Amino acid sequence: MSLSDRYICILCKQENEATWCMDCDHITIVSEEYHKLPSFMKETSNICKDHDRKYELYCSDHECACCSECTLDKHDKCQDIKLLLEINRNINSSDSIPFLDEDLKNLGEKFEQIIEYLHNRIRTNKNQKTQILKEIKSVRKSIDDYLDKIEGQILAELQSKHSKIQTKEIKKASSQESKYIEDLESKGNFDKHNLHVNISSALQSVLTDVKSFGDISITNQPYSSNVKVIIGDEVQHSVPKTPCMEQIKPTFLNTLKFPGRQKYLMMKLLVLDDGKFLALENHQESLMLFGTDGYFWRNVVKFSKDDFPFNFCNISNNIVAVSLYYKHQVILVDIEKNKTIETIDMPGACCDISCNGQTLAISLSDDAKIILLNLQDKSSKIIEAVQLTHLVLFKENIYCTACGTHEVFCYKDTGEHVWTVKNSDIDIPVGIAVDMNGFVYIASVGNNSIVQLSPDGKSQKTILNEKDGIKCPNAFDINRKAGLMIVSSQTSYCTDEAFVYKI
């Protein structure tokens, strides 16, 4: 039970009209009127908060109501303490109440006048603000106009004095040059020097003694032809000779020149058909374009850590395909327009990627599978394969490396296994590429070398090693049309350099 319920009398509970309750010492009103009262009046209570007793007394010294226990705690020395009931009766019977009502009415009207006055002041201040803003802008415009005027004056003065100085300098220079010319004339430097020729008398005799340049004769030479004639349904043709492995020797051309003095770590490198270069750089997480001379041109696109670009390959001279590991996507990027032009969803995490112009080969990390995607109609087929690290697509063959088992594989695009190479010269094979003659090149990280394999995988030789500056050749590519090879080499911790060779 609350405090207010504890002392409510029957009259208070039953009355509907305002009544003076002699027992409770307050006026009862209907609930509708009660809810209209101010909050401070509704929160007023006739119960002492300190002693939980009803207010029965009134202390004139402190001008407050108090209970019987309050007189002992706080008002023991107060002289003028009266019954609260008696004071309420006096107030109720007082002749001043009608005047008080009138005063309250007048006070209410006064408050309404004050409110209206304040509203008028707000409107007035708003108008004043608008007017002041106009005045400020007017003054600002006047200042601007004046500054423009005096600025024009000082600029005109500057131009005048500058022209005057120029005139003096020209006159001075002209005077000096005039003296210099006079000096040259006095020393004969402007004298004419003419050229003459005296024809040798021996040559003059040619006109009379020599009758012809020589004689024209005809000699015979046996016929020899390189054209091999094949009898049967085949036509006559000359067969181009494929160079042997001993004839292929990479020739160093230059290095890629990265901007600034930052450290660069090449994840992948690519040679375009026109001889330009692309680098997928790990620190900057960007695709960087370099000219044919190896100098940096610009950033093509930037990637986020959520993309994790694993590798990229050339589709055409201006379009490259990039595999995004975490997003399970392959995107096509226009390197001229610096934007992604197509996104292709894949059924798993995309690793290595290669293209032969018509078909895109993508390896999936979790399933040990290779997806062959037709770029024209977007049809695809799946090749079941061993776990691989990198791959390259060349004609109807797929060449793969497996760094964990130190093996190199060759498959048909039908999935048929062709050959496997594993020997001591190939240690942790990572990057793989094929030249225009079908020779396979392996980036062997474990022994810091580039190894060349014959198309059938039966022969091999090391063409680059540590003596050539090769160290941890992680990024590696060959462009068959351009006849160029690019290899990354670690120069220090988390820093690579890219070497360009002609093959």
The proportion of residues forming helix, as a percent range, comes to 25-40%
Total helical segments? 8
Describe the sheet with the most strands.
4 strands, antiparallel
* Mean pLDDT value: 81
Q: State the distance separating the first and last CA atoms.
A: 101 Å
Coarse morphology: flat
Verbal overview:
This is B box-type domain-containing protein. InterPro entries: 6-blade_b-propeller_TolB-like (IPR011042). It comes from Mytilus edulis. It is a single chain. With 503 residues, the chain is of the alpha+beta class. It is built from 8 helices and 29 strands. A 4-stranded antiparallel beta sheet has the order 6-29-28-27, with no helix packed on it. A 4-stranded antiparallel beta sheet has the order 7-8-9-10, with no helix packed on it. A 4-stranded antiparallel beta sheet has the order 11-12-13-14, with no helix packed on it. The chain is flat and about 160 Å long. The two termini are 101 Å apart.
Keywords:
four-stranded antiparallel beta sheet, B box-type domain-containing protein, 6-blade_b-propeller_TolB-like, 503 residues, single chain, disordered N terminus, 8 helices, alpha+beta
Task: Write a compact overview of the structure shown.
With 503 residues, the chain is of the alpha+beta class. The chain is built from 8 helices and 29 strands.
Break the fold down into its secondary structure elements and pairings.
Layout: H1 3-6, H2 10-14, E1 19-21, E2 26-28, H3 31-34, H4 39-42, E3 57-59, E4 64-66, H5 70-73, E5 81-83, H6 84-93, H7 96-186, H8 201-209, E6 251-255, E7 266-271, E8 277-281, E9 286-290, E10 296-302, E11 309-314, E12 319-324, E13 329-334, E14 339-345, E15 350-355, E16 359-364, E17 369-374, E18 380-384, E19 390-394, E20 397-402, E21 407-412, E22 417-421, E23 429-434, E24 440-444, E25 449-453, E26 460-464, E27 476-479, E28 484-492, E29 495-502
Antiparallel strand pairs: 1-2, 3-4, 3-5, 6-29, 7-8, 8-9, 9-10, 11-12, 12-13, 13-14, 15-16, 16-17, 17-18, 19-20, 20-21, 21-22, 23-24, 24-25, 25-26, 27-28, 28-29
Protein name: B box-type domain-containing protein
Organism: Mytilus edulis (Blue mussel)
